[in-house]
Design brief:
The structure holds 2 protein chains of 2 kinds. Chain A contains 16 helices and 22 strands. Chain A is an alpha/beta fold. In chain A, helix 3 crosses helix 15, helix 5 runs antiparallel to helix 6 and helix 10 crosses helix 13. By secondary structure, chain B is mainly α. Chain B has one domain. Chain B is 66% helix and 0% strand. The longest helix of chain B is centred in the middle third of the chain and has 30 residues. Classes of the chains: A alpha/beta, B mainly alpha. Chains A and B meet through helix 6, helix 11 and helix 16 of A and helix 3 and helix 6 of B.
Chain lengths: 534, 145
Amino acid sequence: MGRPGGQTFTGAGRPSHYRDHTMTDAGPSVVRAGDLTPELVDTDIWSEQLLFDAGIPILEAPLISVGGGIGSFVLVDHLRICGVRTESLRVLTPLSTPWESFAYLTRVSQVPIGARLRSDSSACPDNIWGFPSYALREAVGADTVRGFLAPLWQVLTEPLLAEHYTPRVGQVLDWMARESRRIRYPEMVATGQVRMVRRRAAGGYFTILTTPEWNTAAARRIAFRSTYVHLAVGYAGLKFLPDIATYRESTRNSSRVVNAYEPHEHVYDQLRSRPGTVLVRGSGIVASRILHRLIDERNTHGLQTRVVHIFGSYVSGPHGPRFMRRGGGDGFAYQAFDDPKAVWGGQLRDRARRTEGAERAAFYDSLGATSTPYRRNWQIQLATARAEGWYSTVIGEVDALEAGSDDLITARIQSGDSVLASFVIDCAGLESDIGEQRILADLLQHTGAGRNPLGRLDVEPSFEVRGTRSGRGRLYASGAATHGSYLPGVDTFLGLQIAAQEIADDLAAEGFCPRLNLFRSAREWFRWATNRVL
Amino acid sequence: MTYSLAGRMHTRIVLFAVIGGIWTALIAPILPTRLPLGRSYEMSFTVLGLIIVLGLLWELLYHLLQQYRWDKDWPTAFSLLAGVPEGTLIWLLLGTDTWFWDVPVTARGYWLLFVSIWLVVWVALSGPIRVLLVRRRWRGGKLFG
């Protein structure tokens, strides 16, 4: 990893015995002192003395945000707009920019920088008001009359005459970069990997940051003492379907059976040099993107690629009861965004807010499983592919993948069928359990956090993690780790922003910052519009 | 917009009264009503009052229709086009003599007033309102509670 532009800790203010310089043949080497001791690891609630004994220096910041992705960014943005100074906020992250992970995941899952996301025009991580929306900004920035009118016409008529307007990846990233400069985000970043968050005996929390290897001037671990902690650590990790995991372990070959969220350009490269069959699994937006890429490749390079698409559950048409009826067809369930729109602030959000326990799980079920947006160009591509006979569908679960001769893979389907393919691309989008994520696992074990009805981190409507309160201190979490909370769609731009809003309001009630009222909101919006640095 | 029923009612009462009220106060003196200023204001605010009061009933219908939508949303075009039936109903009501008011309205005066109120409120609700009421869009349109 390159040296990020953020603040790094040189160890200033620490007793000198934390560093031990020795001379070697190659020159001076620095033994980095200050590490976790078994006593610290085993103790749920820490004191300053415990850290001092371990030689871990303590730094102070009123609020720590752990993660440093878009979840941290939107909370910090919100708090800066509420009037919190940069000195009061620290973002602990291994990322060099808040959009690094997002940009990486979109790129490998076949959403190039110029492609459009599956995101609403007013879901703007750079602008808490969602005004002007991306459509309006695209119109204003257009060079032609058509370029000006097209996005406006689309938001006016969506989703009736036109598909939903969605912004381009590059547009979202550019605006986030602008906002990052405006709120002086890089000044608040401390680079490193967070290892754990523990309660502090006298209230608040200690967050342990493992500093990067290149930063030899810093202690190996630094403890950040804070009253408030926010966790936005993203997805716990990719989880492979059991048959895929078995195949990859037994063959020790992960180049022919890939997850769509892994870099897999080699699949497209090899298909250009040698025709083959690709087995696509999953029926969500990622499957649609992969199909789109495969078809584009075929068309652009005149390839003979064949695609077999396996559906675990095949949606043949509109489905669901009268008042919860969703569109569908050709195997796919159609939905504009990740969830029905009203989960981010309409009647579905109100309903989710009133559910607990099993009722919550049932409510999430009623929102339907995997879906993809109905996009006209994708429909045309697939219709053509079906008509020309090189795209076929199979319904059923895969029992096993077996390596065959000539680099081919045999997929055994439960129905007894089998499919021969050169590559398998898994778009099922399984996520690991939060227990696989080190910070969250530690939180569950040592800090009193529990699981919600969907097995993720249990949070209050204010996004405070239940069971983790420490004196005046509050621990919040947002994003994918809290999926299953009172707010469906937490791991989306809007979900993260709503969480940020709720957390900021809770912090305002605690006296940490002013509440964003009508006047402050208007003034701050004007500052945003004029790009005034805060 | 993804309205809840309460959010629809708050929007119809408070935002139509405030935004529509300011606009009505500004435009009433220059409307081609062929009425003295006082009567022109009376007519204009009667129309705004009807938009709000009858609107509460319309909102019930819209909320019912919204239930048939998977996304439980209300596309912006619906909000704009709702002006057609709503404006027509008020025009027809004003033309009857069975009501307790007696406001002589001209077609030009009425439609200029109605269409302009409708457009001003629609434009404001389509985006700029979020600058002032930052939480509204996440609460189904509710302003308080």
